[in-house]
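Protein Record: Sequence and Backbone Structure Tokens
======================================================
Tokens: labelled as protein backbone structure tokens, with as many entries as the chain has residues.
Question of interest: how does this chain fold, as expressed in backbone structure tokens?

___
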Amino acid sequence: MLDIQGTQRFHGHMCPGLAIGIRAAEIALREIGQHSSDEDIVAIVETDMCGVDAIQYLVGCTFGKGNLIHLDYGKSAFTFIRRSDGKAIRVLARPNAFGEPNPEHQALFARVRIGEATPEERARFQELHQQRSQRILDAPLEQLFEVRAVEPRVPKRARIFTSLTCEVCGENTMETRTRRFDGKTLCIPCFEAMEKRM
């Protein structure tokens, strides 16, 4: 049983994007395995939308553990890998997964986004948004997603590196992210600032 209420609390609200992530997580848990308390399950997400919060909460893949990888492709696509045996699937939202375009919803969304919606318009938008979210939560999975086995490159496990102090700003920086400039160890922002001055 998926903890939908917990996922909603974690994200802050229910929306169609979160609902898509919940359903993608449902497939991952069914096909790849249970909540990852370690790094055995890896998620490669091709978006930074709301649905990624559902992947973190329900599947247990996080940036901090190194088993959540973001590819900035702008696609509602999620690849799940089980390290123990290399099984992997790519879960891709179908073009109509979010539902057919609704002109009223789109117009209200535009007004809400720019801050010009009246309280009544905001309420109507939330009503339509909730209906769309519920439709996604209730739909058959095969109607929402294309799922196929893939042969991904299994990412390395998270590694812990020592920190070095940037000799310009004084902030500790992961050793692998430091740069050398004029005989000094610098963090990336300080290195880029020095480069611009050249």
